[in-house]
Write the structure tokens for this entry.
Amino acid sequence: MKSWKYFMLTTMVGSALALGACGDDSTTEEVKEADSEEAATGDTQEEAVLEGQVSGDGSSTVAPIMEALVEEYAAVQEKVKVTVGVSGTGGGFEKFIAGTTDFSNASRPIKDEEKAELEAAGIDYTEFKLANDGLTVVVSKDNDWVEDVTVEDLKKMWIEDGTTKKWSDINAEWPDEEIIFYSPGTDSGTYDYFDEVILDEADLVKAATLSEDDNVLVQGVQADKNAIGFFGYAYYLANQDTLKAVKIGGVEPNNGTIESGEYSPLSRPLFTYVSNAALKENPALYNFMQYSLENAGDMAEAVGYVRLEDADYVSGLSTLEGLK
């Protein structure tokens, strides 16, 4: 994916070459004069060169957005090294509380106990929204019986009740076959979100395979027509040739239903949390966060999530400016 600034630079270079080829001396002189004026004012549109290191960790759901931002940012600030781990939302907050990371990506809002631990550690932080997601329930394309489920159906499937779950337990017309479950791990914000809005904090079915790596869940569901799983919308879009998104109460996840909230209760925002002290002490971190908020909407759409309203990004940038 080419940087927008790189695209604009190559476009300007191409235009200049075309003008030169035309042999129009007056036009060439005008361009030279414009260049001289630009040099005199210092308005070159070039980024200030920075050096430094920035570290983050957290949600695997947010990872596709953040990885795209890191890749694009590297072309803008070549001497800034940005590293981002994927320990899950909970695992990321553990590192953030320990003071080993500058920012923490999350697919759920920060918990009260995490807030308390950060306060005890003397870490002030700011929450920024990056995009919207629709937690997507999926089955294999080979599954030809499940198209639509209700929240109550999901509860019957996913809450541990001491029985072996079969498809026919949910709908008598479905096969008398055991359901195979794939779920994000307990350090995942996606697990926490599903636990809150679907399970009402009851125990998840013990037979489920758990992983903080969403790709493991994707592969598990792809390989078994009796499997069902859930993860971020972008991971479904990236694998929609082999996976089928299950409608929830007749509503399928897509950009429109996620943005409007119609895809309920599985629509949710995605966040990053940033250390205020690190923002002030590390110009590279401030610059990277500024770049992230300026480009998060485009990157979200590029990797399969849903951008926020422009006003939300403007508000985020205003908040960031106040933390300088």
